[in-house]
Amino acid sequence: MTDRAEPSAEELEKARQVLALLGVSPEALVASQPAAPPREVPTFAEWVPVVSGLVGEGTRKLYSTYWNRLVALWPERRLDELPASDLTWLFGHIRQTAVRRRNWRGGHSAAEHMFSATRCLYKFAVNDELIPVGRDPTRKVKKPKRAIPTRRGLNNTVLEAVTEAASTTGDDPALDALLIRFHVETAARRGGALALELDGLDREQGLVLLHEKGEQSRWQPVSPTLMTHLVDHAHHRGAREPTSKVLRYHNGNPLTYRRYDGLWERLREHVEPVRTQNISTHWLRHTTLKWVERNFGEAVARAYAGHRPSGDARPGAIAVYTKADLEEVATALAVLTGEPHPLAVSTPTELSDSDNA
Question: Which residues form the Tyr recombinase domain (predicted)?
Answer without folding.
Answer: 149-334
